[in-house]
Amino acid sequence: FSLPVSLLVAFLCAYLFKLLKRSERSLKQRLKRAIRQRELIAFYQPIMDAATGRIVGAEALVRWLRPNGEVISPARFIDELERTALINPLTIQMLEQIPEDLKSIFASDGGFRCSLNLVPEQVEQEDFCRHVELLAASGFPTQQIAVEITERLPLRNLEVANQHLERLKALGVMIELDDAGTGYGGASYLQELNIDILKIDKLFVDTLVLSPDNTPVLDAYIQMAKTLEMEVIAEGVEKQKQSLALLARGVHLHQGYYFSKPLPAEEFVRFWLSKQN
Ligand code: C2E
Ligand code: MG
Ligand code: MG
Ligand code: MG
Predict the structure, then answer these.
(1) I need a surface site. Which of 30, 119, 133, 227 has the fewest CB within 10 A?
(2) Ligand 4 center to residue 74 CA distance, Å?
């Protein structure tokens, strides 16, 4: 390249980099503001006992509800929350919202549980578990809460994580391994962490459609959970066929679009009511 062309290219690169930086910064600022303004709220997806048709719990999933009514999915901003420490205030807000949103359900079904997603860092740091201990001391229904730890991101210090999980368990919080089989943990998490519930990822539930009579990895996970005396929740159940095939394999807790998408709190409570006799 001639000198002027090289200069032009260098200039353009610097400019693009600056633009990129600015848009990153502004997403962080916008998210910070959104948390403060309570625009990040929980939707709830039912977890069914497919054997009885009863709703036994829910998963709280964050949504960004813009003032113009637009609903933004976490795929567009969860990474940014995780990268910045903004995931911490968001998680606490979500946690505290759960018993308010689901007050009527918690009151009439003491066995109903709602789960909340954590990132591994929140399990490695003490803040989250200390916060839950404080809430518990003032009557927060920790025995109706579960936390989901994803395998999608690495947990570095299993020993410290375990100490914090034990403190949560002492309050009645259940521990779930999310996205099981898709990420970093593999069998080591199952061996090292005191997990109560294995959430089998949609990836494996999908195999019930692709090759219904040949699902060795799914079957192995189900067997492993049984051996380890863990409950199983199957994620991403979209078709009746999958639900039936899971029941035939002894897995009765199902979550997925076949039953319902994640719903705004009020709609979820109405859905729950409609399933009561
Ligand atoms: P996840 O925890 O594995 O949640 C399950 C995701 O699968 C949800 O996506 C849910 O809407 C979707 N899903 C459920 N059933 C079906 C189905 O039958 N078919 C299909 N195609 N999808 C189904 P969502 O709500 O977009 O959340 C995506 C991910 O974002 C979550 O995956 C979780 O890792 C993360 N996330 C969501 N809310 C929070 C949060 O409050 N905190 C943290 N740390 N992460 C969150
Ligand atoms: Mg989850
Ligand atoms: Mg999941
Ligand atoms: Mg998943």
Answers:
(1) 227
(2) 12
